[in-house]
Amino acid sequence: MIRLATILIILSSHIAWAAPKVDWKAAEKEAVEYLQQYLRIDTTNPPGNETAGAKYLQSLLEKEAIRCAIFEAKPGRGNLYAYIDTGGKKRPLILLNHIDVVPAEKKFWKEDPFSGVLKEGEIWGRGATDTKNLAIAQLMTMLILKRSRMKLNRTVIFLAVADEEAGTGVGAEWITKAHPELVQKAEFLINEGSVIRTLPDGRVSYYGVSPAEKAVCWLELKASGPAGHGAFPPFEPTALQKLVVGINRITEYHPQTEVVPAVEKFFADIAKQQTPTMKMKFANIRESLKDPTFAQEIMKQPSYASILHNTIALTSVSTPIAKVNVIPSEATATLDCRLLPGANPTDFVAKLQGLLEGTGVEIRPISIGESSSSPINTDLFKAIARVAGQYDKGALVTTPLLASSTDSVYFRKLGITCYGFEPFKLTEDQELGHAHNERIAVSSFVGGVKRMLDLVLAMQ
Ligand SMILES: [Zn+2]
Q: Which pLDDT score is estimated for 370?
């Protein structure tokens, strides 16, 4: 019995998937050029202008005779859909990325955010890590597969969507509702999310595969009161005074910690990398959090705190008139709350409403999203683990919960297993999505191009 198991382990570690012959020197050069050119197309959202980006990607795919089409919910807001189907029996795999980028404040950048300049081994531009890098890595996989004329067991779909950053319903949400026939047969999807987290010395900390994400719960607080001259404050509380009391009640409230399965696995996995005293605590995070000293310590770190409880961030306070000598009759504040998978937004809002009782502050939702999650024990997870082992022997593959939200939520609704996995090696400081001076090292980028191809091959 033991002997058989041993043989099986040896065999499975030597099983390799059929791989096309690739001239990697040429392919790397090609990928870098494509990324540079793609970064030069301004797809800042708003307004988006994604069709320009979609057309660029389309031109590269059509050169290889890959079937593709652009779908627009509104003029200029293009979504690009392409696929390679060689008649395989397995259900399709979707490679998802978004075309739009967040605005860049040019004056804070050392290089033009739309220059795509290659300088000292780094490619600069808004979208270099979110998600034009992922798009080109996925696109290169399509091109290489098509050129190889390989027989695929699984159709591979390339989907570049509009409007991920603003979410006004013309991107992934629209595609899944208006054209479900394009995607609903798929079994798996690879999207933005976690990266290959590396340490400053270059060692791999872990391969992050996000199977779940928190839900957006954006709320507005509003108070009204007497208006007047600042020199004659009224006896009764003003709108701003009420709002301040309400805000205090809410910021003093700390939602209790909760450990969802993906987070439990994440802590158990990274336990090995902790100091001897922390090892035990991380390995059994559920129990450890009962110790108030430990809980307090861990909640000081936003990256851990964000995945252990529903969060509330006060993000703005405003009045219609902001003048030093005017008492405004109205005051509002916004709260960016993020809820763990399984949390009920109605209960959460009701809880905050309860806290505000007697303050005269009203609460109303601005936007309520949904949390979503996919199972962990799947062929895609195993394939990622295999690719991780191929590139970084013994590397940890784990499941960080995404505190932010992505388009995966729309595809999970269709029953597709979605993972946030970007196969690029990045340290925490190199994750520059939405930050000034967004850029990616060529070595990190081309490593991702190779891993993406190997991952798709491993899924055949
Ligand atoms: Zn993104």
A: 86
- Report CA(405)–ligand 1 centroid distance (Å): 9
How far, in Å, is the centroid of ligand 1 from the Cα of 300? Answer: 26
Measured torsion, CA atoms of residues 290, 291, 297, 298, in degrees rounded to the nearest 10 = -30
**How far does the centroid of ligand 1 lie from the alpha carbon of residue 130, in Å?**
5
In which residue are the tokens 């859909």 written? Answer: 81
Å from CA of 296 to ligand 1 middle? 31
Ligand 1 ion: Cβ-proximal residues, 5 Å cutoff: 130-131, 192
Q: Rounded to the nearest whole angstrom, what is the distance from the C-alpha of residue 325 to the centroid of ligand 1?
A: 43
Tens digit of each residue's pLDDT (9 = 90 or more) over 242-265: 999 999 999 999 999 999 988 999
Q: What is the CATH code for 19-213+371-458?
A: 3.40.630.10
Centroid of ligand 1 to alpha carbon of 131 (angstroms): 5
Q: For 152, how many CA atoms within 13 A lie in the half-sphere containing its CB?
A: 26
Q: How far apart are CA 1 and CA 266, in angstroms?
A: 32
Predicted TM-score (pTM) of the model is 0.87
Instruction: Give the distance (Å) from ligand 1 centre to CA of residue 47.
Output: 16
How far does residue 231's CA lie from ligand 1's centre (Å)? 49
Cα–Cα distance list, 231 to 1, 227, 324 (Å) = 88, 12, 10
In what helix (H) or strand (E) does residue 443 lie, and over which residues does it extend? helix 442-458
For residue 28, the CA-to-ligand 1 centroid distance in Å is: 23
pLDDT in tens, 88-101: 999 999 999 999 99
Within the chain, which residue ranges are assigned CATH 3.30.70.360? 215-368
Range(s) within the chain of domains with CATH label 3.40.630.10: 19-213+371-458
CATH architecture of 215-368: 2-Layer Sandwich (3.30)
Convert the pLDDT of each residue in 67-116 to its tens digit: 999 999 999 999 999 999 989 999 999 999 999 999 999 999 999 999 99
